[in-house]
Amino acid sequence: MPSEKATGRVLLPDAVLPSRYDLRLVPDLERFVFDGKARITVDVHEATSDVVMHAFELQVSSVKFVPAEGEAMDAVSLVQNLKEKTFTATFAEVLPVGAGFVDVEYAGILNDQMAGFYRSSYTDIHGNKKIMASTQFESLDARRCFPCWDEPARKAVFAVTLVVDPSLTAFSNMPEKSSAFTTVGGKLLREIAFMDSPKMSTYLVAMVIGEFDFVQAQTKHGVLVKVYTPPGRADAGTFALSVATQSLDIYDDFFGVPYPLPKLDMVAIPEFAMGAMENWGLVTYREADLLIDQKTASGNQKQRVCIVVTHELAHQWFGNLVTMAWWDDLWLNEGFASWCENYAADLIYPDYQMWPQFASDTLAAALRLDALKSSHPIQVPIAHAEEVEEVFDAISYCKGASVVRMAHAVLGHEAFCSGLRAYMQKHKYSNTETIDLWNAWAESSGKPVKEIMASWTEQMGFPVVEVKSFAVSGSTAKLSLEQSWFLATGEVPEEKVWSTPIFIGTAASPAGGPPTMMSTRTHEIEVQLSADAGADFVLLNAGMRTPMRVAYTAEMRERLASAVRAGKIPSDNRVGLVMDTYALAKAGKLGIDDALRFLACFRGERDYIVWDGLSTVLVGLQKLLMGGAPEHVYNGFMAFAGRFVSISWEAADVGWAATAQDAHTDGLLRGLLMKMMSRFAATPAWLAEASRRFEKYVEDPVGSGAVELPDEYRTPIFQAVLSSGGEQEYEKLLSAYKKLVVSVEQKYVFLSLGFGATAALKRRTMQWAISGEVKLQDFFYLLGSVSASSKDGLDMMWAFFQSEFKPIQAMLQSSSPSLMDAVIQSSTAGFTSEEKAAEIEAFFDAHPRPSNKRTISQVLEEIRANAAFLGRALATDVAKQQFWDELLAALK
Known about the structure:
By secondary structure, this protein is of the alpha+beta class. The protein is 41% helix and 22% strand.
């Protein structure tokens, strides 16, 4: 049985531990099974007659122990523990202490759950259905492929041999060492042995078998990189290849340790639950996150592929070379890679403006989730390894990245980098905890890093820094600050304090200088203003480098509004003001009427980064008011939103077609404003043009139609046309889908079909989603499109989820819990009443989902917070027609 250590972690006994695995796998892609043999080199540390390993969905037929000296011993008993996903091999005699081998023969299944050693189906360029096999082991699924000590600290060397059909390509983490023909069961097969891997964790082992084309290049530092694609689509891998080769060289220099493997393969997998997986030397990707057509791809597609590649390759060091000792430090992997994805992408493509986008994307996602009481600390205690599935979320990724960015700003680039290099050198090929990183940075910077950072990683939540008083005397502003725990509900259940870096910006220095540290509940600061002190402004989170909210006084808000109108505040701080204002209004710390008056100062905004935040606010308010506000309030908001969007559409002048002069963010803005026009300002003329382009697309979706309707705004056009059309438009789009073979193009259809104008079309979409015809990786997009389409669509989706709960559970079986998370969110997010929260809570009480418990609690908390927000909103001037008339007039 697994042993429980003093830490509370449930681990395998350490009487017998591995140092090397020699694996031989013979997969059968027709029968969807595989045979396996494992010789595991072990050290017996203490006398025992039991060897306990992880294994799941494996049929173990024999286990032998072979001591370094002496005769082999057969296990007399093999007992599986299905709950713990382990098996115990018991021997008649106590195993001799010292070196030895554990030999295991077993069989497994190539499942269709996108976990472990699994199969994918796809249609090739000739229309033939094909099967391939690949692996996805993080977090706990190496045990579905081979018996092992499936814990990150149990690193070992891996030597993999694959026996496959000679017509197929097979590869693993390391380059091929030898290849020879062999006969198995009367079939001529090819036996491929791969070189020994470095010492690594089980979850990073990878294998892929199938038919591929590839493109390749060598980095300046001499590493061979290949991007494997479906046959006939090699050109679609060239963009990712360029990003990868540049990234490896950047990271070599950044981490101070050369990439330690002789090759890097990146492979597009037809069915993939996540975006990508950082297996050492063999990174696997969802097709849409690796392959693009450079001639037609939108800026959004390119940026997505770029940051997924830079994220996964950062893991080759931070996660693979140096690995967290246990899952409670998952953020060391994901938070750091999420920061690195921006660092490397910014160096490769400076025009992407990744750091300004960080404020509207990564930081915004972190603060949104961490404002819930159902959030969790970055360093979350994990007792049983299965619990880690609940923390692959915006806290580990986005808040982790935000805290790393804050550390970079506080320490300075040189100390940040030198500390990282020392950390990598000291801990390479081993495991660490968060304190090891703090110690490295403390030594490089001379600063008390643990004292600064612990409040951000060890406690849940983040602060709101409220300006209690603001007084200007001459050219000096005196501010009295107070920090408290910020929750979306507005409540403060307990007092918390963070070591909060305050970066102060003014008109003379909008980016701010070195931070002022606020480590107590209250703090007094003085800020030097410009000669025109009466018109100057003060920003308290310049550059959005600290994960916090700021609540300004009314006078400071007015100064900031004037500065926004005058174009004196950088885009990252403008979006910060947008997001803070909305969050404070939702929490009851600012009236929604005052918040909307402030947001009106963004009239004519033309920056994509700022619009990323504005769109979040407009869509959020629409969903809120659509759910329970009086008709005149909803109509007043829609009139305001429509005019607000139209002004920016006209001011930005992005039009319907890209031009040679477009910057990267111009394309992103065009796509985003199309989404806003579709939702709030679809005039007859705009709809006519949308319909014309839609008709051109459905006539030839893989040729001229794709040019006429670019992918940067394909989804909002589909949604607008389906919403205003009928069954004919629905059938045309469905017919076009059947001609598409590229998953990213298919996704646009999946995101749109739920917008069919009738209840019958919405029901048809939901039934198709669970029919088995749609890939498991994509079905929840269809369900989400229904709930996103309208209030009626959300109600229908929730009713459908309840009625089809058992079939949906059966579909997902033992796949990643993230897929059920997505379905739960699609079925419930958007409700705004306590009654609906109680109904959803009662359903999950009757139908418990332990692996989705955290997501369910977060959804319920968000619904209740929105219900409280709606109640507060309707108690302000927002409930009066006069307010909307005046707000609309302010836009003229």
